[in-house]
Amino acid sequence: MKDKAWYPVLFMFLVTAIPTALLIGLSQYTRARIQANTQISFEKAVLCAVAPDSAPTLRGMALHQRFLAVINTNISAAAGAYRLMDGATVKAYAIPFAGKGFWATIKGVIAIAPDKTTVLGFQIYEQSETPGLGAEIAQPWFGKQFQGKTLAAGVAPIIFRRKGEPLGPHDVEAVTGGTQTSVRLERLLNDAVATWRAALINARTAP
Amino acid sequence: MSPAQPKSTARSVTLDALWYSNPIFRQILGICSTLAVTNLVLNTLVMCVALTIVTGLSSWTVSLLRNAMPRNIRMMVETLIMAFYVIIVDIALRAYWPEMSRNLGPFVGLIITNCILMGRSEAFAISNPPGISLLDGLASGAGYSAVLLLISIVRELLGMGTLLGMPIPFFAGPHWDKWVIMVMPPGAFFMLAVAIWILRSLGSATEEKPS
Q1: How far apart are CA A155 and CA A146, in angstroms?
Q2: For a disulfide at B133, which of B57, B116, B125, B167, Cβ 3.0-4.6 Å?
Q3: Structural domain total, chain B
Q4: Cross-chain CB nearest to A41 (options B88, B92, B98)
Q5: Chain B interface, best mutation among A37, A57, A59, A105, by max B CB count within 10 A
Q6: Over the Cα atoms of chain A, what is R_g?
Q7: Angle at B189 between CA A173 and CA B28, to 5 degrees
Q8: Which domain, by its residues, includes B103?
Q9: Is residue B2 part of a domain?
Q10: Residue A41 touches partner B, C-beta closer than 8 Å
Q11: Which 3 state secondary structure label does DSSP give B166?
C-alpha cells in the first residue's frame, strides 16, 4: 500500500488532521484562562504605571479586585484613559497604547499626572522584540526613564534620543541596537498620547 | 543487505546523549537558545524541561510511525509532530504560567527550529523502536540541559549576584562588582566557548585522532 501514489497524501492528511483537532480542543479548553491572564497582565501594567514606587505584589484574582477597587474603568468619560481615583479625585490617568513593533504587537501603558503633563510611569506588558536588543523596552531601566518627564506640546510629546545625546525634560534614551523597535514604539506611544489629548479637547469644547 | 548495526542499549544511548555525543559541546546543536535564555537559571530550567519533553515525545512519535511513514515525506511529518508538541507546551505555559511564557517570549515557539529535535528524529528515532527512542530524546534533552544550566548558573551568579532570583552572599553584596556583560548576549558567547573548551578538554583522551 505504501507504494501507491495516493498513500503519502492520505498519510500527510491524517497526521495533519489528528494533531490539529487535538490542538483546537486544547486551545478551546484553555482560551478563557489565557484571556484572563492577558487581562490581568494589563491590569498589573496599569497599577504599576500609575504608582511605580508601590507596584502591587498581588496576583490573579486579588490583583483584579484591587484594580477594580482603585481604577475607574469608565474610559469614555476620560477620553480613553483609565483613572486612578482617591474618592472623587483623579490621582493619575493611564493611557493604554498598542501597535506594531519590529516583530509583533507591542502593548503598554503610560501614566500621566492630573496636571496632564507629567509622566508618572511607563509599562510594557506584551512584546516579542529581539531579546537583548529591542526587548529591552520591557526592562525596568527603560520604563524608569519616563518617570518625571513632561509631555511636550505638539505631535511628539516624548522624544527618543540616541544614547549619549543630552536628554531634555521630554526626552528618553532609545534602545541601542533596537532602532526599529524604538522608532515604532516612539510613534505608537506619541500617537496614543496625541489622540488622548485631542479627545480631551473635543470633550471640553463639545456642547 | 546492509551490515548489521550494533544494537543500542539504554546505557549506551544515555551515555552518548549526556557525554560522548552531547548535543551542545560535541555536536554544537541548539546554540541559539543556549545563547538566548541562559542569563537566568529559572528561565533556562523551564526552557530545558520544555525542550526535553518535546524531544522525547517527538522521537517517540516518529518512532511509532516510522514503519508507516512514506520516506519521501518523512521530514514534513517529523516537523509537524515537533510543532504539535511545541504548541502544546506553548499553550500550557500561556494558560498556567503566563509570567514564564512572557519571560521566554518567542523562544518556546522556536524550539521547533532546534536542530536537536530533527537531529534525534533523523539519526535515531526513524530507525529504532519507540521505547529506546523516547529514552534517546529525553537523554539528549538532559545533555542539552546540563550544559545550559551550568552556563546559566555562572551567568546569573556573576552578572546579577543571584541564583534562581535569590541573592547569594558575597556576590549580591557591595564587595562584588557585578559583571554586567554576563547577563548581556556577549556573555553567553564567552561562557559557551569556555564550557565547550573545558568539557571537550576533559574528554579529549577518548576522541579519535584525525587520520
Answers
A1: 17
A2: B125
A3: 1
A4: B98
A5: A37
A6: 22
A7: 140
A8: 10-202
A9: no
A10: yes
A11: strand
* Residue type at B168 in one-letter notation: I
Q: Could you read off the pLDDT of A108-124 as tens digits, one per residue?
A: 999 999 999 999 999 99
Is 0.90 topped by the overall pTM? no
pLDDT band at A142 (very low <50, low <70, confident <90, very high): very high
Determine, for residues A11 and B70 on separate chains, whether the beta-carbon distance falls below 8 Å. yes
Q: Which of residues 87-116 of A touch B (CB under 8 A)?
A: 103
Q: Is residue B27 part of a domain?
A: yes
- Cα–Cα distance for residue pair B57/B72, rounded to 1 Å: 22
- For chain B, where are the alpha helices, taking DSSP H only? 10-15, 31-37, 41-65, 74-96, 98-104, 115-123, 130-160, 180-183, 185-202
State the DSSP string of chain A. Answer: -TTSTTHHHHHHHHHHHHHHHHHHHHHHHHHHHHHHHHHHHHHHHHHHHHSGGG-----HHHHHHHHHHHEE--GGGGTT-EEEEETTEEEEEEEEEEEE-SSSEEEEEEEE-TTSSBEEEEEEEE----TTTGGGGGSHHHHHTTTT-BPPSSS-SSEEE-TTS---TTEEEPPTT-HHHHHHHHHHHHHHHHHHHHHHHHHHH--
Kindly indicate whether the ipTM for this predicted assembly is greater than 0.90, answering yes or no: no
Mean pLDDT confidence for A168-172: 92
Partners of residue B91 in chain A, C-beta under 8 Å: 23, 26-27, 30, 34
CA dihedral A125, A129, A132, A138 (to 10 degrees): -20
For residues B30 and B22, give the distance between their C-alpha atoms in angstroms, rounded to a whole number.
11
Take residue A58 and report the three cell numbers written for it: 498581588
